Structures are given as C-alpha cells and as structure tokens.
Protein 1
Amino acid sequence: MRPAWSFKRDRMSRTKKIRTGRAFLFVIAALASGTLRAAALRPQSKEAEPQPLARGAAAPDFAVETRDGRTVRLSDFRRHIVILDFWATWCEPCRESLPHLDRVARSVGPRGVVVLAVCVWDSLKNFRSWVSGDFKDYRVRFAVDPAGHGSQEIPRRLYGVNGIPATFIIGRNGNVAATVIGYDDGDTRIEKALAGLGIKTGERP
C-alpha cells in the first residue's frame, strides 16, 4: 500500500517517506474531517511531535517567495478563503495531489478562494525547476518557503506540520476551518471542507 504522506526529509537522505519496519511505526489518525488516514510517528524521537493547528485556531501569517521572485504574505489574502497546501518536489504523494489541487483552484477561484501551494523543506532551485515545467499553467499560486530546512521554516514551526502534503482550509475570518493530512486517489476532503464554508466545487459561480 502506498503511503498517504511523507515525512520531512533530513539533509542526509533523498526522501524520507513513511516506511514499515525499523524506521517508522504506523498508526491510524482520525482527522478533523472524520476520515481515517494512515499516519506515522517517529518512535525514537526525543521531542514530542507537533500537532497540526486545530479547527478554530488563528492561521499564523508568514512570507514566502513566488515563482517569479515576489514576496507574498498569507495576510495578502485577507477576507478570502485560503487553501494552504504544504508540499515538496521530492514528496511523491504531494506531486500526485497537485493535479487535484489545480482542479479545485479552477473550480472555486472566481468565488474568492485562493489556493496557495507552498513548497517546503526543499531548495529554491528545485522549486523553480519544478514549477516551470508541467505546473507552469496551473491556477494554483505556487510559492516556496525561503527558510528551506532552517530553523525558521514555516510548516513545523508555525503550523505544527511533520508530514506532507498538509492542507489547511482557512476561512475568511483567518481561522483554520479544516486540516487535511495526506492524499489518496479520489480524495474529497478539501471539497467537503469548502462545502462547510458555503463553497461548492464543480459549479459555476
């Protein structure tokens, strides 16, 4: 069975995906949507793993760099619904989720919904190379966390993220409405979260 998400990779490995056996211990985690997904914990970690921001929490502001070098902040999209997705070029489940994210963006963009996909735990070179290829025509707003693997990285420090893809649906009030961890084919958790905010996908605005 293919893992539903990937862990933050360290500097010594090409990727750090969920594995069975010695490296990782699988558990079943119930997400806010009520849908169960396979998750993983680091059994030998000395530090407690962070917990993703819960529903109702204020979404912290941050600055990221777009594919053309501009700086944007989450607060630039105040009064919009924001689908904030953390991903990486080396993360297979992330790459598989991006076409679905683009379909959502095309469906809901005219209704005051912004899809912001932030590349994390990665290099600027990898990011620019990746988004200039197959994803250059996507309606998703791509950006990269300039901190990369540094101590000021955004996903873990601000949003409690330890595995990707990790998606936060943020309401117009700036609070987290839903959290979606991982991706599987046919996943509709983002659409269900949007429906809870009065946005139905697949319909003309």
Note: The chain is about 20% helix and 25% strand.
Protein 2
Amino acid sequence: MGQRTGSSCRLSAPPPSRTQAQLDQLIADGLAARQLTETVSGPTLFANDSVVLLPAAARILTPLLAQLRRPGATAVINSYASAPGTPGHNLALSQGRAEAAARFLEAHGVSAAALSVVGHGAANLVAPGSSGDNRRVVVVIEEPAYDGG
C-alpha cells in the first residue's frame, strides 16, 4: 500500500543552540529557511514498469500542495525504480515517474518553474530487488527564509 514513509526537516539560518520550538516559531514568522523531505513509496504510486500515477497517488501527494504553493517554495522531485530491468530502462522509468509526479503537482496549482525532477534509476534500493517500496518518490521542498522586505 502506498504511503508517506518518511519525513525530515532541515532548518537553516538560526544558530543550532535554539530549541526546536524556537526554530518552529522562526519558520512560522518567516525568519528561517526550511527544507522538508517527504518520501512516498509503494505499489499504489505506480504500477510495475509504468510511469502513470495510480489513483491512490493523489491521496499521497495532495498533502504536499500547501507547502509547494507558498511563495518562493521550490522542490526537487527524486524518483527511484526497483532493480529488475537494465540500468538505462530503470533510469528512464524513474525519470518518467518524477515527471508524472511533477505534472500532478502542476495540475493542482504548483508552478512548473518551482519544480525540478531527477530520475535515479535503481540507485539506493530500500528493499530487496523488485519490492514495490523501491518504486518511490522523494520530494525535497525548500521554503525560503524571510528576506526582510
């Protein structure tokens, strides 16, 4: 089943001596940049050997829309394939999957200029061989720091 399998947040600007609550407030106030990484995976994102998003993928990608619609937000959409197949095929497949995720986000109000896509093929497998968990998309969202203007 497709799911959001991981989330991490990297903050920049404020000194590391601040507490997480203080950092969260700085982000809320627009005074610190934030990088959020969302990993979504599983066979409900894409069928085997396909670049077409399955219907359940909308439920998985939709929670990212609010962050991606913020002014100045950008994202890199990284996609990975499972191991079966040639390296060239897997690279093209993962690139097509990243592009499919980007088209979904664009169709729901995210600026195409804010999105970059990268296909990684079967690099960095998270499960043995042909597991559906290897068919994953990792979206890295960068929200800008407040520029004082």
Note: The beta strands are 3-12, 33-41, 74-80, 115-119, 136-143.
